[in-house]
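input
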Amino acid sequence: MAELLDNRVLIAALLAWVAAQSIKIAIDLSRTGRINFRYLVSSGGMPSAHAALVSALATVTGREAGLQSPLFGVAVVVASVVMYDAAGVRQAAMLQARILNRMLDELFTQHAFSERRLRELLGHTPIEVFAGAMLGLAVGFVLAR
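output
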């Protein structure tokens, strides 16, 4: 267990994720005046916790294992795929869910069906991903040796 707690790569990634989710709570608090702990486990929003996690992971891996190490290469590829997915594929799914929910709203106003809405907050805008990546880089630089 002590070895796990001494793993700077893991600690940096988790700390960046917690920081991003906490920032989401603070942003929502400033908008609504209420604390919503749902943001600790939700996807979407500013900043991207996925981007923060993987960029912290890649940053600490690069600083500790070296930029020429295979581990750093793997971390950068994983980070790239995760951030592309967050801003690309999941963003598209979010837009489709929003359109389908509008269609369902129109249908339900004319017919008596039970309404089950699709989850819309799935993806991130490129700015949310960029902000998460910058947060992850900052955490990674602070925690790397």
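quick obs: The mean pLDDT is 84.
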